[in-house]
Design brief:
Order of helices and strands: HEHHEHH
Number of helices: 5
Helix content: 55-70%
Structural class: mainly alpha
Shape: flat
Length: 117
């Protein structure tokens, strides 16, 4: 491939792939809610107790558990993609305000290795 044509070739390929594209239907999921988040938190607490995870790993995993379990929902209520994205954004905003998250990001960008703080 000619290096001077990489962008043009990529654009051509993207336009070819876009022909006839239709967005997929919105999906809904039935997620267990707080009970699953609690089970996840208990498992991570065990890892912290055994020394396989840090206390801050538990904080991060609690936010992940909240998203994966659907937040404050019930197994009978469908959770939309939009709701899951909202939960993810809220979790990210909560974590990014913590200096330990910022330390992890900076360390990864500097060294290429995760920080276990």
């Amino acid at each position: 491939m000619n290096r001077k044509r990489v962008l043009a070739d990529a654009k051509k390929k993207a336009l070819e792939l876009a022909e006839g594209y239709e967005a997929p239907e919105r999906q809904e999921a039935f997620l267990p809610g707080p009970t699953a988040a609690a089970a996840f938190d208990m498992a991570v607490s065990g890892f912290v107790t055994m020394g396989r995870a840090t206390a801050y790993d538990a904080v991060v995993s609690a936010e992940v558990a909240r998203v994966l379990s659907g937040g404050d929902t019930d197994m009978t209520e469908p959770v939309t993609e939009k709701k899951l994205l909202q939960l993810e954004q809220e979790g990210f905003m909560t974590l990014i305000k913590n200096h330990k998250t910022l330390d992890r990001i900076e360390h990864m960008l500097t060294t290429g290795k995760p920080l276990r703080n």
